[in-house]
Design goal:
Elements (H helix, E strand, L loop, with lengths): L2 E5 L3 H12 L3 E5 L3 H11 L4 E4 L10 E4 L5 H14 L5 E4 L6 H8 L5 E6 L8 E5 L6 H13 L3 E2 L4 H24 L4 H12 L5 H8 L1 H15 L8 H8 L39 E4 L3 H12 L4 E4 L3 H20 L5 H9 L1 E4 L10 E4 L5 H14 L5 E4 L6 H6 L7 E6 L8 E5 L6 H13 L3 E5 L7 H18 L4 H12 L5 H8 L1 H14 L9 H8 L19
Parallel strand pairs: 1-2, 1-4, 2-3, 4-5, 5-6, 7-8, 9-10, 9-12, 10-11, 12-13, 13-14, 15-16
Antiparallel strand pairs: 6-7, 14-15
Helix pairs in contact: 3-4, 6-17, 6-18, 11-12, 17-19, 17-20
Amino acid sequence: MLVIGVVGLGSLGEGLTKVLLANGAEVIGVDSELDVLARVHDRLSCPRLSLATELVDLKRADLVIEALPEDFGIKESVLRQLVDQCAPGTVFLTTTPTLSVARLAIASGAPDRVVGLRYTIPPPHGRHVSLIGTAMASAEACHLARKAVRLAGAELVSLGGRPVEAATALLYACMNRTMNLADEGYATVEDLDAALKLGCGLKFGPLHLLDLIGLDTVRSALRHLHDTTGDDSYVPSPLLDRMVADGRLGRKTGRGFHRYDDRGELLPPPRNRVSDGEPREIRAAGVVGAGLMGRGIAEILVVAGIPTTLVARSAEKAEAARERICSSLTRLVQKGRMSEQDRQDVLARLTVGTSCEALAGADIVIEAVAEDMAVKSAVLQGIDAVVKPGAIIATTTSSLSVTACANATSRPRDVIGLHFFNPAPVMKLVEIVRTEHTADDVHATAHALVKWLRKTGVDCADRVGFIVNHVLFPYLNDAIRMLGRTDVTVDEIDTAIVTAFHHPMGPFTLLDTIGLDVSLAILETLSAASPTGEPAPAQELRRLVETGHLGQKTGSGFRLVNKGK
């Protein structure tokens, strides 16, 4: 039986210990903190687990995994002590997302016996791992390291050190921005995680991921990234500093951004009333705008059982929108998700027209026209002039001020932002944006409607970018800038983000999918609204847009695209 030592029983060390025990290894866990040892004992009690406070207790280990905080001095000191105190031939795995494995191996005094073990998400939640060898590591050390990976039940992936470091740097800056939003009180922890998880298709919300990695580990890595790059996006959030000082380190301590039970399982958040108001009754709805967003919203409204009138600029556009919705419903029938009778019943609830007069009986009207304030103002004033007293007006703007939209009407108390994500029938997230004028019962109605539509609503204040765009597009911009300061490639970064962090696609694939011109416009809007002018769009993005390389729509962007696929 292989005897494996684990030094440092934080998030990563505890996770490794758990999976190693589950796969039959004998584990000696070492940590200097008695409360940490007690916690691990309670969570992982097993005859093959022994716990200790001194490195000398690792003398009989065949292999030792160092899982300490991301601090070169600490890792160097412990690796040197391990080399002195463990048996000759013992192999050492150092876990680091950002430090140089070669430098640590040399500093240990036994570079032939040191291999890097790189998890980006601690086990058991993260199952992909990279081994970072060096030219100095012996064949026996590499063989034993691969054996330990198999015992940990992990999938060994060949990503290379630099791509994983680049991916980690991108995601840590993204998590840091999310923490700053939480620190500002812009949105709740639960809403921030839900928005980014659903809006970006992530496996974990960024604050939940922070808890899994360990807040102290992330803070150490951010400090190292700031020291080496000088980039202020890596300055740890003040909230992170306060939480670490308070001992709220995440899953390993049972308290972080979320709460965890004695086994380290995520606890449900406390239930809070979403609004002080009571929802207004909605018996009929209207949608103004026949584009992709407008007809998608109209479709989900009628599917949910709400009679809906869709208003377009012309009879041709109105009829085309009806046909598109009809085709979408027909595909649901063909896939067995809807019966033909249900399709006919749904279509019977849809009315199309060309005049706002048709919206007179609606209880809520959702504006979904172009992102142009002059256009929106004219449309909102037209809606305001015809809808009945007490009717709610919602705008789907993603980049304009909801307050400015509300002020274009005579009823700002009845106006709210409902930012659906494209395609609306598929995407589950809706950002609910209330202004200082929005009435409590309007806010309550928005939440009730979103729930009725089987979506997840998250609250955020009226600020450019709301939650998702405020975090997502600076991350995409960072990825572009990284090409200029490192030797990693587009494909390497995309592969590392998808494989190591379970994202549905890498940043460059996402940029090409969104459209580089659209991405540039959003970044310019965010930059113009920021007191610091950040995020200033990367020059490489501007040049690609200027030369007509816009992504999938033109067949080329950050990579060549086969438009026929």
